[in-house]
Structure formats: C-alpha cells, structure tokens
Write a structure and sequence with these properties.
This protein is mainly α. The relative contact order is 0.11. It contains 5 helices and no strands.
Length: 154
Amino acid sequence: MCAALGVYAVVAAGSIRVPPGSSSVLGPRFFPYFVGTLLLAASVAVIVAIARGHRGLPEEEEDVDPAAKTDWRTVLLLVLCLLSQLVLIELAGWPIAVAVLFTGAALALGAKRWWVAAPSGLGLGLLTQLVFGAWLGLSLPAGPLLDWIPVLHG
C-alpha cells in the first residue's frame, strides 16, 4: 500500500502546474516528490526485510489501560488551543499563533516547564514561517510584531 501511495505521489506531482516565472526556491513539486520518494524507499526496505526473513513479533497486549476514562479536561484544552490558532493567525501572525498553540498543547499534555515550551513553539513558528514564506513563496502572515523582518515574507 505504501508503495502504491509513493508511486501515486511521484506520478501526480508531475501534473502540478508551476506558474511561468515562479521565483520560489523549491517549488510546489518538491514536497510531493520528497514524500513519494520516502514512501517508496520505506516500502522497498520493508519488502527486502520481509524477503530476508525478518518478521516482527505479534504484540501480546496493548500497553493502554482499557479501564481508564477519557480525560475530557485535556481534550477541551487541546480544542481550545486549536481554536486559538484560528483567531491568532490574523491578529498576531503565524509565528506567535504557533507558539501559543505549541505551548498550550504541551502544557495540556503534561509539560512542567512553560519556559521551555514557549521558546520551542516560537522557534517552530519562526522556522515554518521562514520555510513556507521565504523559501516556498507562500503567504503566511508574519503579524504586527514580526512584520518588520523582510526575510519572513514570501
């Protein structure tokens, strides 16, 4: 199945239209080719491993407690973090919205040190802003706090 998805991704990526005079460094075909190639490589590795006789042991039981109840507080906090992303993208910009989402999700899932989660989220937001905005030429709003940095714009 993975091999079929890989072949489909590589073949379908060729039909993605690239606008003439496109100035993006990587272009819209890069990620489909990359993911399709990874799927094909993983499929070949699994097929070779199975052909050599390497087979995984079946699991005896799951490592979850079937009697445990759903932690609805955590689910609600994660939903609120996702909803904050919708609001904050326009108001504060992509990097700040990602920082809030990452920090909130980390704290909801049990992180003890917010001062580690917040800079990690901001770094993740700035990195994705740089990759998608500057290198791929896609428009992610930098927001009023970071609008003065020219490299963050597509």
